[in-house]
Amino acid sequence: MSLIEARGIVKVYQTGDVGLRALDGVSFAIERGEFVSIMGHSGSGKSTMMNILGCLDVPDEGEYELDGRSVGGLSGDDRARIRNTTIGFVFQGFNLLPRATALENVELPLVYARVPARERRPRALAALERVGLSERTSHRPNQLSGGQQQRVAIARALVGETPLILADEPTGNLDTATSTEIMELFTSLNRADKTIVLVTHEPDVAAYSSRTIRFQDGRVIADERGASRV
Amino acid sequence: MFELLRTAIRSLASNKARSLLTMLGIIIGVAAVIAMVAIGAGASRSIQQFISGVGANILIIMPGAPSVGGVRQQAGSGATLTTEDAEALRDEAWTLAGVAPEVFGRVQLVYGSMNWSTMVTGSTEDIFSIREWRIDEGRFFFDEEARSGAKVVVIGATVAKNLFGEESAVGKVIRVRNAPVEVIGVLAAKGQTPWGQDQDDTAFVPFATAQRSLFRRGIANSVQRITVAAVDGDSIPEAEREVSAILRQRRRLEDGEESDFDVRNMAEMLDAAAQSTRVMSLLLGAVASVSLLVGGIGIMNIMLVSVTERTREIGIRMAIGARGSDIRTQFLLEALLLSVAGGILGIGLGASASRVITSLLGWPTVISAGSVVLAFVFSALVGVFFGFYPAWKASLLNPIEALRYE
Ligand SMILES: Nc1ncnc2c1ncn2[C@@H]1O[C@H](COP(=O)(O)OP(=O)(O)O)[C@@H](O)[C@H]1O
Ligand SMILES: [Mg+2]
What's the CATH architecture for A33-58+75-225? Predict the structure, then answer.
C-alpha cells in the first residue's frame, strides 16, 4: 500500500465567471521512504497539489488516499488530526510564530497532539538537536538567520514523528550554501525513513531526490526515477 | 490548558498599551460599581449602627399635624404638646418603657475663659435610658431635680473636652445664660451620626431648669417634643397606636378629625434608609450594566482586530494540527483574560477609591465580599459573551487562505 495515492485530482479556481483548472486530472502514487521532488513552471499547480496532499485543501474531483485512508469527505477536525499525526510541513516562508521561541515553535504540534508538557520539552529539544540547533532553543525567529529559521521549521515538522514531510520550495528564500545544508538535512531525514515530497524549480535542489514529478498547466507531464546524486 | 493560558498572556503582554486600553471600560465599570456599593453599604450600616445606638424602639412625638405625602402641614395656632401630655403618657400607656418631654435650643456655655456653644436639652431622667446614653463620669440627674429645676447639667464628651480639656468636669460650675450650673456628669462618647453630626456635642439639664431659666418659652408648660421608648421592638406599632389614642382622647378629637401632633418611629426611618439603599443599588445595577456592556463591546472590537492581524498565525497553527475548537478556545481565553484582568484591576481601583473617599470625605464605606465576587463573575461573563463571536470567526478561517494572508 502506497503512502500517497492520488487519482484524477482536479482543482478549479473560480475567478469571476472563468474557471481556472489549477489541477487537471493529476494521478500519482508515492511509496513510503521515497524522496520525491515536484518541479514545474510557476503557476503549474505545484502548491495547489501540495495543499491537497497536506490535507489543507480538498480536491473538486478525484480520489486521494493517505496512508490507506481516503481523505475525501473527512471533517475539518479529522483533517486537522491527520495534519497533526501524519504530516510535517515546511514552507518557503518558514511560517514560525514570531513571538514564540524556537523551542516553543517546535513544541507546538505536540501541544495540539495533547502531549503532556513534561514529554514535549525533551522531544522538542531532541528535534532541535537533530537539525543542529541545540544552541539556539530560546531564540525568537527574528533573532535567527533564514537557514536557522528553516531548521526550526524542519524540527517542528520532525517532532511529531510523522511519516511524511511536505516541503513547498523550502530553499526558495535561501542562498545557495544554506540551500545545500538544508537539502543535506532532508537527505539524512530520508535515510532515516521519512518520506519527503519537495517542491522546487531548481534542478540542483531536485537532484537530491530519487524521483522527480514534473507539472505543467495542472497536469503531470513527466515522472522520472533516477539515482539521486548522493 | 496551562500552555493555552501562557500563550494568551503572552499575546496580551505583547501589546500592553492596547490590552490596557481595552480593559479600561471594564476597569472603570467595575471600579464604579465596587465604590458605589461600598458607599451604599457603608451608609446603610452606619445608619443601622446609629439607630441602634440612639435607641431602636424610640417614638418621637412632635407638635403639629402629621406630614402628608412628604409635605409638612402647617401647624395650627393652638397646636402644642405639653408637660401634661407627657405625664398622661407616663401614667396611662402600658406599652412605653420611658417618656421624656424635651425643650431644647442652642446655648452658650461658659467656664472661666472658655466658652462653647452647644445644643442643650431640658428633659427628665428617662431621656438617658431612652436615648441609650451611658455615663462616663459622675451621674445623671434625677426626676426630682427635673421637677424642681436643680441647677445641674450633664454634658457630652465634646463639650467636656472643649470647656475643660484634660481637667475633670464633674463638680465644676459653668455659666449657662448667666445662670451658674453645676456639672454633675459627663456622657460616654457616641461619635458621629451617619450624616456627620457630632452626637457628643450636647448637654442635658433638668426639664424645669430649662423651662424656667434657659428658654423662657411663651407658654409655660409647652414642650418641643416628647420622646418615648416602647418596651421592646415588637410593641412599637402597638405603642404608636396607644400614644396616638391617649393624646387624641386628651384633645377630645372625634374620629376623622386630624391630630395636631405627629408620631414618628425609628423603625420607619430605618425602612426609609433601607429603601433608598435599594433604589441606589438598582441605579448602580443599571450603571454597571451599561459600563460593562461598553467594556464588552470594546473587548469584542479589539478581539476582532486581533483575529484579523493574526490570521497568518491562525493558519500556521491550523497547518500543524490545531482544530477549529483549539483556535476558538485560544481567542476565547484571551478575551476572558482581558475581561477578568480588567475586573480584578477594577476591583482594586474601586477598593482604593472607597478608601480615598472614606479618608477625604469621611463617608464610611464597606467592601462586601458579595460585591467583589459579583463584579468578578460579571466581568468573566462579559469576556465569554463578547469574546465568543471573534473566537468563533477565527475558528472558521480556511487554513490555506489564512496562511496566504499578509
Ligand atoms: N486561491 C486561488 N484563487 C485563484 N486562483 C489560484 C488560487 N491559488 C492558485 N491559483 C492559481 O492556480 C494556478 C496554480 O497555482 P499554484 O498551485 O500556486 O502554482 P505553483 O505553486 O506551481 O506556482 C495559478 O494559475 C494560480 O494563479
Ligand atoms: Mg507555489
Answer: 3-Layer(aba) Sandwich (3.40)
